[in-house]
Amino acid sequence: MSYFVALGLSIICLNACTQTATPPPTLITTPAPPSPPAPTVAVYGEAPAGGLTCVPYARQRTGVSLQGDAYSWWDNAAGLYQRGNKPALSAILVLPQTSRLKSGHVAVVTQVVSARKILVDHANWIPGEIVTNMPVIDVSPNNDWTQLRFWHAPSNTFGATYPASGFIYTANVTPTAPAALPPATTTDPDQTVIISGNGVSIGSP
Questions:
Q1: Cα separation of 114 and 178, whole Å?
Q2: Contacts of 151 (CB under 8 A, 6+ apart)
Q3: Can you give the pLDDT at residue 14?
Q4: 3-class DSSP state of 17
Q5: Which long-range contacts (CB under 8 A, 24 or more apart) does 102-107 make?
Q6: Which DSSP helix (H) or strand (E) runs through 6?
Q7: What is the pLDDT of residue 40?
Q8: Among residues 165, 168, 164, 175, which one has the least CA distance to residue 64?
Q9: What is the DSSP string of 38-103?
């Protein structure tokens, strides 16, 4: 091999060794979307009912064409409106006739907070008052909303357990599927606060 050929090969090798390597491609990462905020629970309120009781108030709020005492709405809704045991916005919660609730009771769902908690608007639960955004919790073992407790603002706790017939779904409203079932409340932490059918405290059972 001549001197010049060897020199040329050496220069080629040196150039090959000194070439800058191509940098790897830059990875573009997209940040994960933020978690949706927890629902804001509306503020509880009381106002004079102006003579309204729960039945005309619920009829006025929802436009349903049901008549009769509150407890009778559950049977009267058959064939007219969908019924079920899952809360939904604007659905009508129906409580049956009991020794405390002589005429039953109806309330309008204003917010589904969780699988075990809703807010309702209703009239005359507290006599002469319309209560808005009252918390109601489900304490039934199967999360089927058959056993409920209503918020009692003066004692800052939930009152006695009431049976419930279920929910009447007004036009264009369908039930909301609950999330994973949280455990039911198995004991009543405040047995001294018992709420009568119209919301008046009547003492221990």
A1: 7
A2: 44, 134, 135, 136, 157, 158, 159
A3: 47
A4: helix
A5: 102/197, 103/69, 103/70, 103/71, 103/197, 104/69, 104/70, 104/71, 104/72, 104/73, 105/54, 105/70, 105/71, 105/197, 106/54, 106/55, 106/58, 106/70, 106/73, 107/54, 107/58, 107/134, 107/136
A6: helix 3-18
A7: 80
A8: 168
A9: PPPPPPPEEEE-TT--HHHHHHHHH-----S-GGGHHHHTTTTSEEESS--TTPEEEE---SS-TT
Q: What does the alpha-carbon distance between residue 82 and residue 67 come to, in Å, rounded to a whole number?
A: 16
- Two tokens, residue 192: 């001294």
Q: Both tokens of residue 131?
A: 């209560």
Tokens (6 digits) for 198? 């119209």
Tokens of 137: 């919790």
Rounded mean pLDDT for each run of 10 residues along the chain, 205 residues in total: 50 49 63 68 92 96 95 97 96 97 97 97 96 97 97 95 97 52 43 36 30
Query: What residue ranges define each of the domains in the chain, with the CATH number in brackets?
Result: 43-176+189-205 (3.90.1720.10)
pTM for the predicted model, two decimal places: 0.70
Angstrom distance (rounded) from CA 16 to CA 12: 6
Ramachandran category for residue 156: left, alpha or beta (phi over 0 → left; psi -120 to 50 → alpha): left
